[in-house]
Design brief:
Strand order of the largest sheet: 1-2-4-3
Number of strands: 4
Distance between the termini: 19 Å
Radius of gyration: 14 Å
Order of helices and strands: EHEEEHHHH
Bound molecules: zinc ion
Number of helices: 5
């Protein structure tokens, strides 16, 4: 049986402490997304549903994608956002990528990955 959900390893939780709102230990990554057909991952609360083969990968693109979704868990914890709020923001701001939540998640993902790699954690603590 393949593993279909997992917590972040303690080394990744330590990295995220102070970088995100909410408890990194609460985050659960799941294989597969309800929006698999469009290739979109989605985050409900602290549960991240990863589309495609991202769950099992820990290359640069996959880690950046996971950090993006992890930032959504932080937004959810900090602002009390629901998935409905994220979808409403896509509509209000004229598309998924124009939402300020998405832009913030992209910025966080790039910065977090750079720091993760600089610390060698992409090699010692893949997730
Ligand atoms: Zn997003």
């Amino acid at each position: 049986m393949p593993q279909n959900d997992k917590k972040l390893p303690p080394c990744a939780q330590n990295f995220l402490k102070g970088r995100i709102s909410g408890n990194p230990a609460d985050i659960t990554l799941h294989r597969g997304s309800p929006f698999e057909l469009t290739g979109n991952s989605v985050t409900f609360g602290s549960d991240v549903y990863l589309a495609g083969n991202t769950f099992g990968r820990s290359d640069a693109n996959a880690l950046i994608h996971k950090f993006h979704e992890i930032q959504h868990t932080s937004q959810n914890a900090r602002l009390g956002l629901s998935t409905f709020d994220h979808i409403a923001a896509y509509v209000v701001f004229g598309g998924h990528d124009a939402s300020p939540y998405e832009q913030a998640a992209d910025t966080f993902a790039d910065d977090a990955y750079k720091a993760y790699k600089a610390a060698g954690l992409d090699k010692t603590c893949p997730f």
